Amino acid sequence: MRNRWEDGAAPDEADPLGQCVYASRLLGADAGLVLHGGGNTSVKAVSRDVVAGEVSTLLVKGSGWDLASIEGPGFTPLRLERLREVLGVDALSDAAMMNELRCARLDASAPDPSVETLLHALIPETFVLHTHADAVLTLTNLDDGETRVREALGGDLVIVPYVMPGFDLAKRCRELFDGLRGPLPPAMVLMSHGVFTYGPSARVAYDRMIEVVDRAERYLAAHTRLTTTEAGTPPGVLALASLRRSVSRVAGAPMIATRSTDPASTAFCRRSDLTTVSQQGPATPDHVIRTKRLPMVGRDVEGYAKEYTAYYEDLCDAGQTTMLDPAPRIALDPVLGMIAFGRSAADAAMAADVYRHTIDIIDRAEQLGGYRALPAADVFAVEYWELEQAKLRRAGAPPEFAGEVALVTGAASGIGRACAKALLARGAAVVGLDVDERVAAVAKPPDYLGIVADVTDPAALRTAIAQGVDRFGGVDILVASAGVFGPSRAMNAFDPDHWRRTMAVNTDAFAHLLAELHGLLQRAPRHGRVVLIGSKNAAAPGRGAAAYSASKAAATQLARIAALEWADDGIRVNIVHPDAVFDTGLWTPEIIRARAEHYSLTPEQYRQRNLLHTEVTSDLVGALVADVCGPSFRATTGAQIPVDGGSDRII
């Protein structure tokens, strides 16, 4: 475990909150310590109150912040003495506890404080750090966990049997602290939960955390080894798409599916005892929110849903909770590997990260005598925690295309880029293809994957589609935007090479796309959709544009035939015909100025040379394409929709 503290980079000790932010970010930067919102930190300081003057304050990580990126506003200031008074009551529900914490805030606009705030208040040291370190969790999830923890970490620590986070955990720790015969040891291990360290300075608390986790890691290195294997041949894309559709059906909404092919995940999925070791439960109940209690082994989604429903019915209090969807969040299959599911690409990526770390913990724990998770009832209590149920009730409707996947060709610029952006803005995960390397920078992961690929190369196209399916699980929407125009050329100056190149990009590549994607679109949870970016030239060709006009007309005919043939599969195929979209790479200021002068117009007048006298932009086309893919067009296929401001030639 590497100590990343740098005195030159850390804020001055006169800035305690700055030091806490710095230490928090160091912890958050190491996935072996915390993952995706896990862990919490705090500092005790003095604040100014308009009535009481100087007030002893606990600044604790607020809900919704991630340690890796937390800033000063991510820490909620609370009256420390009030928190310690709350610790003195005999019993408190979690909802009542959160109400007390909110009432103790010094800033009403600050985020809700961590559910472990009372424990931070109880610990007397100035700085308090809490992580879910993999190495420590490995030791605590053993039959002889407490013995192993002391053997690995030494005796100068407090060990707390598992208690659900919140008021009860803080009360249990207070009882343990009261029983100590000396000062509080420098570290505290919570069984199946993680580790706390603390100190008079952020540096001391951080050094202690690194030392504790480093001891655990060295112990594991001496007693275990990581199990890996080479990844096998990737399965066909349709197998993963079929599984995604089944999971989406059980979940009641489209789901993203992310496949992991790293050696450790592959080896775990091929274990002969997989059905035993994987069905114990999560490394810490906190993970259940991301991964559910158990992964699905194999591909029997209906069977998994029945078992999950039985688990819920066995442990729920009638009328007190609402059952979550019974679909798995993790699937383990010897052929497909490990697949993580989520309502968004971010959710799926977080589930995958958490379970990859769980695999490491289980693997090492098995070598130390056997992995043992908490009983199902303890995990259920966190999964159906009243605080989590309240979050679900407050959650708004998901974005329009949440859980769906779009593949956009020509995505590096112009109309293709605008289509990708419009679909991303409405919640879709997007795979962008283009020969231009700028395609990688159109948007950021995890919702976007930009791939440099030539759509006229069938092998490259097939490889790119496979990459996209591995990342997101399928394809629901195809936007075929890649196209070339080329120089103006009269028919009596016919150039076979120019003709073939234009046809290859504008027509042949579209035909290949349709052939490659039909099976994936057929398996789309909400039925597939195709939008071809056509052109006004398909219906109203222009002089000197024979290759372009003919290729767009041919592609339009292909789309119409697909609409006829694929209707029985529920796949909608429509064409959008833009014209005079001047913010694309085809139009430079010089070309616009020259064309405007030809018609005795200003450039501004030329841009609005249509019946509505409006300018057609890439963003306008992108928004229309997104609309065509949405529910408003669910009864429309084979349509040709102009977006040109009105053309008398078309009308």
From TrEMBL:
InterPro entries xref list: Aldolase_II/adducin_N, Aldolase_II/adducin_N_sf, NAD(P)-bd_dom_sf, Sc_DH/Rdtase_CS, SDR_fam
Highest taxon of source: Bacteria
Keyword Coiled coil among UniProt keywords: no
Domain Class II aldolase/adducin N-terminal, residue spans: 19-220
Keyword Oxidoreductase: yes
Keywords (A to Z) from UniProt: Oxidoreductase
UniProt organism field: Catenulispora subtropica
Family: Belongs to the short-chain dehydrogenases/reductases (SDR) family.
UniProt xrefs under Pfam families: adh_short_C2, Aldolase_II
The protein's name: Bifunctional aldolase/short-chain dehydrogenase
